[in-house]
Amino acid sequence: MAIQLQNRVAIVTGGARGIGRAYCVGFARAGAKVVVADVLDTSETVAQVKAAGGEAIGVAVDVANFASVQGMVDRALAAFHRIDILVNNAALMANLKMGPFHQIPEDEWDRVMAVNVKGIWHCIKAVVPAMQQQRYGKIINVSSTTVLMGVPGLLHYVASKGAVFAMSRALARELGPLGIRINTIMPGLTQSEAIQEMKAASPVLVDMSKQLAAQAALGREQYPEDLVGTVLFLASEESDFITGQNITVDGGVAHW
Ligand SMILES: NC(=O)c1ccc[n+]([C@@H]2O[C@H](COP(=O)([O-])OP(=O)(O)OC[C@H]3O[C@@H](n4cnc5c(N)ncnc54)[C@H](O)[C@@H]3O)[C@@H](O)[C@H]2O)c1
Question: In total, how many domains does the chain have?
């Protein structure tokens, strides 16, 4: 049975490109209205949602700034009058140079935490009042299998994604009584534009990508479309009795 999200409204942060764009198009195909939110230009994703027969608005947001996030939520409510789904997909990952932990510049450490951790807290704080009023909401936080695998060379990023996982678990208990479900998805190494760019800058990532594909139980590299079905499931009524959980989507590399 295909997932049905008619009359649902979904915000996808970091929806301008890559995996976020794949979520936006997936939501549109399932019948949801989509708010494509990003620091980058969102027009191409909005066009792809419309081409898929959906409805979307693009919103400029910096998730690290609460006033900007509140503005995103206000725009979503003005356009579509409700918010059912939040996918916390925005993150600083692209352009992070892999290297020893003690050489990470302090300002880069702080910015990764501001976007990847505080940004998620901001987005959840801003959407909860609307979800609470509806007595229904679905929040999907995007972590990473780098947390399970202990991937070296990106300590700030891996630490931030561990915090995402921890926040989902703790918040499930606070939000459950309000009718809001919150779960985590952990993607494996996914061949998005960002990863292609990082591979060009870090040859070690090219080797890691090949090794992971060889280790995968399903025996191939992972693409943005591989993640869409799980996010649609977690966003839908089919998963209404699931909260505080993590689903690893990596073709069977990390068995956890
Ligand atoms: N590609 C992978 O291998 C992989 C693996 C595990 C997890 N992830 C996670 O999946 C998500 C998407 O990754 P991707 O590969 O498409 O990379 P990406 O860099 O293309 O996606 C991140 C998006 O977030 C946006 N963004 C960054 N800072 C922002 C801010 N302050 N405010 C609003 N938007 C901001 C970016 O502009 C971009 O569109 C990220 O959370 C990433 O950490 C990716």
Answer: 1
Q: How close is the Cα of 62 to the center of ligand 1, in Å?
A: 13
Q: How many residues does the chain have?
A: 256
- Match 């499930």 to its residue by tokens: 172
Give the ligand 1 atom nearest the CA of 114: 31
Looking at the domain assignment, is residue 213 inside a domain?
no
Encode pLDDT of 47-101 as tens digits.
Answer: 999 999 999 999 999 999 999 999 999 999 999 999 999 999 999 999 898 999 9
Domain, as residue range, for 70: 9-190+224-249
Catalytic residues: 157
Nearest 5°: the CA angle 145, 102, 209 is 30
Name the pLDDT band for 255 (thresholds 50, 70, 90). confident
> Which 8-state DSSP code applies to residue 190?
B
Query: Can you tell me the distance from the alpha carbon of 179 to that of 102, in angstroms, rounded to the nearest whole number?
Result: 43
Helix (H, G, I), strand (E, B) or coil at 230: helix
Query: Domain holding 130: CATH number?
Result: 3.40.50.720
- Residue 211 included in any domain: no
Helix, strand, coil percent content, the chain, rounded in steps of 5: 50, 15, 30
